[in-house]
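User: Can you predict the 3D structure for this chain?
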Amino acid sequence: MITKRLIFSLFLLFFNLNIYAADTIVDHNLDAKSPRKIYVFGASAASFDFRFNRDVKFTSASGIKILFKIRATPGITMHRIGRDGLDWFNITKRSDITQDDIAFFVFGETDCRTHIGRQRDTQKCDLSEIIDKLATAYIKTILANKNLVFGVPCAIVSVTPPTDKGENPHVPFYGTLADRVNITRSLNQKLKELCEQHNLIFIDIYDLYCNAAGALRPELSDGHVHVHPDFNTPLKEWAIKVLLEHKVL
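Assistant: Here is the predicted structure, written as structure tokens:
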């Protein structure tokens, strides 16, 4: 059985042997068959998870060709996507996506890092109440976007594990690392449930990058809150595996 840990172990083996370098993502034989386009919408995590703010050609270990078209807007929260809806977040105005493509959505890291715990404490309400409201509004906006491009497969990428390294004073950590691990896991679980309810694909990458405590493994990070681009190949391999399971590739 192929697992996330197995994919990552194989990747690290190839990386260390210089057989399969993590940033060897440009395939020079793509003209033989056009790759499937995946538009990646998100905050800064979208750039780090899928290789910065540009179009990226990628060939999986099984030979599947993908063109990741990254459309990242750093600093944007899941809360804003849900609150402002199509008035602010409209994928047809941010890209030339068609029903033949696939859409990925990568939001929520900042919400888990800074906002959810603070809202829980200042509003003196249950964590589940905050997360349910946040995730439901977010998914509502994603579904509205899906309806704009009839038939386009849409996937929600889970929030990556939190960390206590490289704090940004403008968007600081709130609460303990253990609390933020719980918040992130809880949000991911709610997103998974909503995806199952609304025929969306959920791509859970959390376990690819967490340590035993559930935090982001520092050796796989950029030194701050994101996965280092040199180590995002397992993420893309796992995403392709999930898409294949859902028969959209």
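The first helix runs from residue 4 to 16. Confidence is low (pLDDT under 50) at residues 8-32.
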